[in-house]
């Protein structure tokens, strides 16, 4: 009597197995041959992207994007990445050496170690307040970091007020505001009149000092590391003040020799005389002959800092700096306007030999030698034209290049014409309140920035570290910028630039004189996306073939693009892509 039941159970099992088999076949056809499978496949690809365990899979995806065979938008990064800077990652860098703050310098992951995803804005992000109102207030929701306001509000740094952070203009050494402090400095320095144009503010806080100097015609590049205050440079850039994330540690700062007319430290806590005066020597490399060095705060006549103060004065004497004034906790020195006068000293400071190029400063360790100018004071304040005359006059350092003067003049003319074309024909919003923070990723002589001088913008001129080192000429013009290798992320927070400009973008991924890429155009454009504000603009020039590839990548970055011809005066076959970064939320 049990046999029929056994047969029934076997038939039931076969029915279930057959149904499962045909269901799997049907599901396979649905996934492969209908749109139903696209979201699942897309999700799987994005999960693969966010994983860095298999570089080969990442490389395959990048190739698909460049070829236009992947057209789905790249997924957002996780919500906790809204302020992510890949090369200034505290978790990654905390394991490194503390010696001379090495762990707080740039330390970049390899491209294969970085997830390829789009940095999202904070939940309640708003389009930033426009310049010049932004100098005094920004949206709290764009950077909801209250630590500085809580700890430094009594010193006039910033305070929370309704939906805004308000900036009264103070600092640790000038809690009543930067303007009275600047008035004190002008008694001893030529603040007005165009003699001083380029300045460096070290350990700048939220950059109120640099922001206040703009009214004096002084262009200040403010820097500070990513530290316990977390977002001070982010606040500075949100305000529309030139700023940069940087640590004074074991390496030369990424600027050319004799770049700055004025270097300022207000309680920056840099131990200038330590390590055989290595930090003071680096400041000397950066300061133009005849330039001014101002240090406020410790150790200048500071209680319990008598030894450090004596050592600081001894270094300045050894380098023949002229003491202008010591008033309270502020000292002002003037650098000699001739080749270095080096006195016998306890710090074992010597002159650098001619084989040391003082303009090479990308991942170069600090040197313990003083840099001669080699041109008999030709870079000195008072011997170069004042501002604004220096903007359009070819500087003496252009003479070092073959046909340097002709190249400089041709570059200036070309960019004046091209910027007019951007504004009048391509309708790029340069010259309007919509654009304040601008970056030129391949600046050469700074002609693009020079053509924008009458606009309410500032320009971060970036000279690629593997190209001719023309950044010194940019500073001689009275403009500012940095060296950088675009195969690495830039040292800025997400969403800090309104417009990013790049000519010959493909060259930024290649070794000089080689057709081989050393990094991916996809990664480079994802980095542009990270730096660009929502509704910000990218203007990219290159050959038609490269622009076609750039447009494919722009699509997966969620940009809206147009491709345009170059200006009629240009005889090249290049194209110009103008893109807008869309405003999206998680």
From TrEMBL:
Q: Transmembrane stretches, by residue range? A: 12-33
Instruction: Fetch the SUPFAM superfamilies from UniProt.
Output: S-adenosyl-L-methionine-dependent methyltransferases (SSF53335)
Which major enzyme category is it?
transferase
Q: What is its EC number?
A: 2.1.1.-
Highest taxon of the lineage: Eukaryota
Cellular component (GO) terms are:
endosome; membrane; trans-Golgi network
What keywords are assigned to this protein?
A: Glycoprotein, Membrane, Methyltransferase, Signal-anchor, Transferase, Transmembrane, Transmembrane helix
Report the InterPro entries cross-referenced here.
Put_SAM_MeTrfase, SAM-dependent_MTases_sf
A single Gene Ontology MF term assigned here is: S-adenosylmethionine-dependent methyltransferase activity
Tell me what topology the record assigns in the membrane: Single-pass membrane protein; Single-pass type II membrane protein
Locations listed in the record: Endomembrane system; Membrane
Do the record's keywords include Metal-binding? no
What Pfam families has UniProt attached to this entry?
Methyltransf_29
Enumerate the Gene Ontology biological process terms.
methylation
PANTHER family (UniProt xref)? PECTIN METHYLTRANSFERASE QUA3-RELATED, SAM-DEPENDENT METHYLTRANSFERASE
State the family named in the UniProt similarity comment for this chain. Answer: Belongs to the methyltransferase superfamily.
The protein in question is named Methyltransferase
Organism, per UniProt?
Gossypium darwinii
């Amino acid at each position: 009597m049990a046999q029929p039941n056994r047969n029934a159970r076997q038939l039931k099992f076969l029915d279930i197995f057959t149904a499962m088999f045909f269901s799997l076949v049907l599901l396979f056809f649905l996934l492969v041959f209908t749109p139903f499978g696209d979201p699942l496949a897309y999700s799987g690809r994005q999960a693969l992207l966010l994983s860095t365990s298999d570089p080969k899979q990442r490389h395959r995806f990048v190739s698909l994007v460049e070829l236009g065979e992947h057209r789905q938008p790249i997924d957002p990064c996780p919500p906790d990445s809204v302020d992510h800077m890949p090369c200034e990652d505290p978790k990654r860098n905390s394991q490194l050496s503390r010696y001379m703050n090495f762990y707080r310098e740039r330390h970049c992951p390899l491209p294969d170690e970085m997830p390829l995803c789009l940095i999202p804005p904070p939940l309640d992000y708003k389009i930033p307040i426009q310049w010049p109102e932004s100098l005094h207030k920004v949206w709290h929701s764009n950077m909801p970091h209250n630590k500085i306001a809580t700890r430094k509000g009594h010193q006039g740094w910033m305070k929370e007020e309704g939906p805004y952070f308000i900036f009264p203009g103070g600092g640790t050494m000038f809690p009543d505001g930067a303007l009275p402090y600047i008035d004190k400095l002008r008694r001893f320095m030529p603040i007005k009149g165009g003699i001083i144009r380029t300045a460096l503010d070290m350990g700048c806080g939220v950059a109120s000092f640099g922001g206040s100097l703009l009214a004096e015609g002084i262009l200040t590049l403010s820097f500070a590391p990513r530290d316990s205050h977390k977002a001070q440079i982010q606040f500075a850039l949100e305000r529309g003040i030139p700023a940069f994330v940087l640590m004074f540690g074991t390496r030369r700062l990424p600027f050319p020799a004799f770049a700055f007319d004025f270097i300022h430290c207000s309680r920056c806590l840099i131990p200038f005389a330590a390590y055989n005066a290595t930090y003071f020597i680096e400041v000397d490399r950066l300061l133009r002959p005849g330039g001014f060095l101002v240090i406020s705060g410790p150790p200048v006549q500071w209680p319990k800092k008598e030894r450090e103060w004596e050592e600081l004065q001894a270094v300045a004497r050894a380098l023949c700096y002229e003491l202008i004034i010591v008033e309270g906790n502020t000292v002002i020195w003037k650098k000699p306007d001739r080749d270095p006068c080096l006195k016998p000293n306890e710090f074992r400071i010597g002159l650098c030999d001619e084989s040391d190029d003082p303009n090479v400063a990308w991942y170069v360790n600090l040197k313990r030698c003083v840099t001669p100018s080699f041109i008999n004071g030709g870079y000195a304040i008072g011997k170069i034209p004042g501002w604004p005359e220096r903007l359009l006059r070819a500087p003496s350092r252009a003479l070092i290049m073959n046909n340097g003067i002709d190249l400089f003049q041709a570059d200036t003319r070309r960019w004046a014409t091209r910027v007019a074309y951007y504004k009048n024909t391509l309708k790029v919003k340069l010259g309007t309140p919509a654009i304040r923070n601008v970056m030129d990723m391949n600046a050469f002589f700074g002609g693009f920035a020079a053509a924008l001088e009458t606009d309410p913008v500032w320009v971060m001129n970036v000279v690629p570290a593997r190209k001719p080192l023309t950044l010194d000429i940019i500073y001689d013009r009275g403009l500012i910028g940095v060296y950088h290798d675009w195969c690495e992320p830039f040292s800025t927070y997400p969403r800090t630039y309104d417009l990013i400009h790049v000519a010959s973008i493909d060259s930024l991924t290649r070794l000089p004189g080689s057709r081989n890429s050393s990094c991916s155009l996809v990664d480079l454009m994802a980095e542009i996306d990270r730096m660009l504000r929502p509704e910000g603009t990218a203007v990219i020039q290159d050959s038609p073939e490269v622009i076609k590839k750039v447009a494919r990548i722009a699509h997966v970055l969620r940009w809206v693009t147009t491709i345009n011809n170059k200006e009629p005066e240009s005889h090249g076959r290049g194209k110009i892509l103008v893109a807008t970064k869309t405003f999206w939320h998680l």
